Each structure stands twice: as C-alpha cells, then as structure tokens.
Amino acid sequence: MKKLLLTVATLLAVTSTAQADTEECTFISESAELIMQLRQSNAPISGVLEAVKEVELLVELVIKAYETPRYNSEEYKADAVTDFSNLAMVTCLQSLKEVTTG
After folding, report:
1. Any idea of the CA torsion for 18, 22, 27, 31, to the nearest 10 degrees?
2. How many CA atoms lie within 13 Å of 28's alpha carbon, on the beta-carbon side?
3. Sorting pLDDT into bands at 50, 70 and 90, what band is 23?
4. Residues in contact with 84: Cβ distance below 8 Å, sequence separation at least 6, in sequence order
5. pTM of the model
6. Which of 8, 18, 43, 80 has the fewest CB atoms within 10 Å, counting from its CB?
7. Which are the contacts of 91, defined by CB distance < 8 A and separation ≥ 6?
C-alpha cells in the first residue's frame, strides 16, 4: 500500500489545481472500480495486466485487486467493488493532502 500511496502522490504532484486533483482521484477511483469488477468476474490477471501495462498506477491497482478474494455472492462482489473504489479514492485524497501540506 505504501508503494501505491507513493505512486499516487508522485502522479498527483504534477497537477496544479484542486479541480484537476479531484479529477485525478475520480479517475483513479473509477479505474479501481472497473479493475475490481474484472477481478470479481474472474477475468484472468494476465489479460488485465496486458491492458494496463503502460500505466504503472493501474498495474498497482490490478495487483492490489487480485490480492483480494473473489466472491461468489453478487452482494459480496458488489461490496468488494465499492470498497476497493472507495479505498482508492481515500488513498488518493490523502496523498493530495500530504502533497499540498508538505
């Protein structure tokens, strides 16, 4: 998680406005949601990694998602997707705060 946090902080350090920063966090959260949906639908990690291989942050999200159990219940799958997306957003926002406050 520390490496993910550092990657997010580095990525976000280059943006200049609060709106742009929030948009970056929204992108990260939405990407995390999609990646976890793929994880919960049993998509092979090799295919997901191939699709995101050019973006290190997305590779990190894929690895974190595939460290999470895959559930059988639709309710648990939906919860896993929401939780992972929310975690990505919170981590990103915390990184923004750390970058802006020093």
Report:
1. 140
2. 28
3. confident
4. 32, 33, 35, 36, 64, 65, 68
5. 0.78
6. 18
7. 1, 4, 5, 8
